């Protein structure tokens, strides 16, 4: 595979839809047949694979097993939800639209509510959108996965956000239909129908919603979904849950899950704004047209295969040398950089120094609920000035700096920063969005290109709507940065087949994923795999009753302070050795870093 060209067959594109394909797993946790060999693929093949995976978001529904993004039912529900948002916009007094989620889903909630509140401000209207993210604002920039498991915390934070409101449209996002935090909020809405109308956004069919008991609850995510399905018949609740296909890296819902969330909710809110402020009624056709615009965004972005490949290779090279990848962004595109960078820590077990994002204007640009978070530590320093003081002095040619901006940003400011970066590293690259016919910017850009090793320039047709263009730039940037950081970690050897082995076991979803992975890779029975995992978490060779009688929450809280628990458990399972021995084996031969993981897996065996 490595080096050879990769073409995806039609059967691989649809294989995951078969009832027999990994039948015990929900779509969001299945492994994608398209990326089975991503760990051994060349940079260019990785880009093609990611493109094919993303394209699955827009596959037609005809003949498909699951309902899809462009399918009749999904579009109809989007129309209805947009009309509910319109009602709030018409009569904002005592009303609120709340978007809430965990991890990437909460970050998307933040990004979308920020953009649409800004749009309202520009129209001299009062804000009606609020976001909630499990773990609070620090979770915008770091992984806070323990609060995701707490349904009561979800309920309390919703209650607090809605104090005094008489009408709330609550949009809960959980890509896997799995987060207890969101289940607690939806249950609360169902108990207070006089105020709350619940909407659930996720990417599994309802029957695949998680059915495990949650601490202190009589309901499960699935039972909440079932109650919502019943109410959906009379439009007292709404479910928007198309399948978008398995993620390129199994379970990594920051990728398609995050993108599809952004697409769906922007379509909903844009339609509601157009209906309220420009008298354009919400229609099936209009919704479909907007979704198709995102499909074109995908095509336009991935048409830059060579440019993306170059970035991915450069970033992979930096990570392989133990050096940094820095995203320097402007405006909301910078926020996508911050988000992408922060997700590398839980997704790839990366160090916070490996991939970092910085935003021009820092927290002023972020405008988050809790304000500046600098007091939480250096990893929360996000302004360009912070980069100049803390990072730039130590950079060399092995560190890659990627400028992310558009023609509506202050290009002279971008050029000034580029010049300063060039004094320390020549490894400077750019992602730049511009509009067709903007010749002044094109001339400026020519000079600027000379400073950059590579420049990925996307020219967009003159827009019918500025706000649509902006949303397309954002999605395009999200796809590009997800591709760069995912591809770079694949090239670093962090992925085995299409699984992240060194997954952090910091919440119950990840605990179950880790056990499943151990089972798949070792072939040992589930009980033995869970035992091995617990031994690695508690650093013991024998499990005590004290350990086995604890619940998953205790296990995941303990796992927060451990590293490499899954690789350690895997070595123990494959070799039968003790934990201490497994640790020294991993030290001598880190199975999943640097090189082809599969051969290293063999080495350890
Ligand atoms: C929420 C989430 C993911 C994150 C990780 C843990 O998932 O925080 O965003 O990448 O997988 O869970 P979900 O509730 O949207 O499925």
From TrEMBL:
Question: What does the UniProt keyword field contain?
Answer: Carbohydrate metabolism
Q: InterPro entries from the entry?
A: GKRP_SIS_2, Glucokinase_regulatory_CS, MURQ/GCKR, SIS_dom, SIS_dom_sf
Q: Which domain of life is it from?
A: Eukaryota
**One of the record's GO molecular function terms:** fructose-6-phosphate binding
Q: Which GO terms describe its cellular component?
A: cytosol; nucleoplasm
SIS domain span: 85-278, 315-494
Q: Which Pfam families match?
A: GKRP-like_C (PF20741), GKRP_SIS_2 (PF22198), GKRP_SIS_N (PF22645)
- Alphabetical GO biological process terms: carbohydrate derivative metabolic process; glucose homeostasis; response to fructose
Q: Which PANTHER family match?
A: GLUCOKINASE REGULATORY PROTEIN
Official protein name in the record = SIS domain-containing protein
**Origin organism of this chain?**
Dicentrarchus labrax
